[in-house]
Amino acid sequence: MRLPPLNALRVFHAVGSTSSIRSAAAELGVSHTAVARHIKELEGWFGTRLVETTAHGTALNAEGRRLHGSVSDAFALIAQATAEIRPPGQSMELR
Predict the structure, then answer these.
(1) Which of 4, 21, 26, 65 sits 20 to 30 Å CA-CA off 58?
(2) What's the CA gap between 75 and 20, in Å, rounded?
């Protein structure tokens, strides 16, 4: 199974959810330049544009919207599996 870079998918998901490279960067705690680089990496991997810059900001094109829907579903499944496996009340704090 050959998957696209998972960090780039995570960044792409944030961009699609916020409709903004800067907002996605703030959400992820990285620079907007890093977000743009991950988007370009993902577009290179797929060989097609996924994100368009418009007068109103950043928008997913048709391919980007299609991918975002699938990525959102996949992340939701991962979140559900994590919640089922992690014992209730377990802290995320590293000790």
Answers:
(1) 4
(2) 19
